[in-house]
Amino acid sequence: MYCPEAAVLLLSTTVQGNVLQPFAFKSGTMAKMSKFEIELPVVPKPAKLSLSERDIAVSSIYGELYVMYLKHHSRTTNSPGAEVVLYHLPREGACKKTHVLKLNTTGKFALNVVDNLVVVHHQSSQTSIIFDIKLQEPDCAVNVHQPVLPARSIHPYRIPRTGPAAAPSQAPVACELYSSTWSVFQPDIIISASEGYLWYLKVKLQPTLNLLQDKGKLMDFLLRRRDCKMVILSVCSQMLVGDEKGSLPVVAIVFDKLNQVYKEYLEAEQSYTAAMESGPSRSNSSYKRPMRTQAVIDQSDMYTHVLSAFTERKGVSHKFIIAVLMEYIRSLNQYQITVQHYLYELVIKTLVHHNLFYMLHQFLQYHVLSDSKPLACLLLSLETTYPPAHQLSLDMLKRLSTANDEIVEVLLSKQQVLGALRFVRSVGGHDNVSARKFLDAAQQTSDPMLFYTIFRFFEQRNLRLRGNPGFNPGEHCEEHVAHFKQMFGEQALMKPVAV
């Protein structure tokens, strides 16, 4: 028996056929691997069991090579049914029996491996049983597995029939499933000899949502599948409908499972970037850019496909909506993933929509929502609805310490010109700020004394920096000088006073 994926040839070396010798091929060379023995069931003498080729399959599962032995039910023992025994075949070292898949039935079987799942076809019941060897943590040398899902039939297929051009086309004919003329090849091929068709077997993930009730186990199953993203997102949407009280712990488990995979990808990407930036070397030449699989569900995916629609759903209590949003943020923080500002914005908009301003105030006061410029701008826009939001925004900008320009703009837009000037002085930026910007804002207030005070401040600054109270042409303050003369007279220009 030959496995083209791993380029390994398996030979039987005894009459009973249960002592197997593998050979590995690579780059035109052949290497002899460790010989091993398949344990056959004990039967009374004089009868002797021999290993048949149809009871053995070789395939790669989760990147490891396995020899699968279909061990049929023995009438002489009290075993409940047949089982599939998996022998792990490493490139180096001894081959060991590692997994037993319990079929819990008897009859004729065939094996395929699809998307790292072992699929066992049972002819008499016309159903297939699916096993995932990674779904439980290994707790001993040989791990026993039950089917992941209830037995289900392969989806029906209709074979199109076309007659000659003169005759009308014939109606499609239903394909005979689990036929005795089927031949099964690894990893995922089924050939129907009687109908002359070859199929590739695929796994449909959508039906698993209703077949596997345990959401945590379902998520573990889906995260290992190839085309899982949209199914996972539909699970997330589905679990947010129904019993609110009982579902929050389940929501937390699912979010943690998703963010663990997300974090692993981010760390791998970070390591790769760091290795590339350090320059070419022998150690990082082997680094490969991490593949972003469909199992990586990032914040944008959750926001677009799940959370934004969930917050707009009718008939859901606002407490549950807020609890779910905060649970997702808690999970991101737990895995030290930087929370994107649009998630915080979603929380704030939801709180405002339900008039939960006291909760918004608490979230900001206790830094449940992390400071950011976009968040501060959003708070500013809420001032008409919730007046304290203005001060909360300024406090946030000040904490950021990189948003001094934004604070000045906010204060000037509110005609708090003296407040803006005091803030600039408090952060030591008063020697560099634009005089024109402040004089513009002061003039717009139509308050003569405020304009006088601001004008005098900048005259004093000019005198201190250049020894002359006048403005440079590059400052474009001619209009304001003319306005000052008109209001207070030209003689007032040369009398700078302290603010």
UniProtKB/TrEMBL annotation:
GO biological process, one term: regulation of autophagy
Transmembrane segments: none
Chain ranges of the Mic1 domain: 225-472
GO CC list: late endosome membrane; lysosomal membrane; Mon1-Ccz1 complex
Signal peptide boundaries: none
Pfam families listed in its UniProt record: RMC1_C (PF07035)
UniProt name for this protein: Mic1 domain-containing protein
Originating species: Alosa alosa
Organism classification: Eukaryota, Metazoa, Chordata, Craniata, Vertebrata
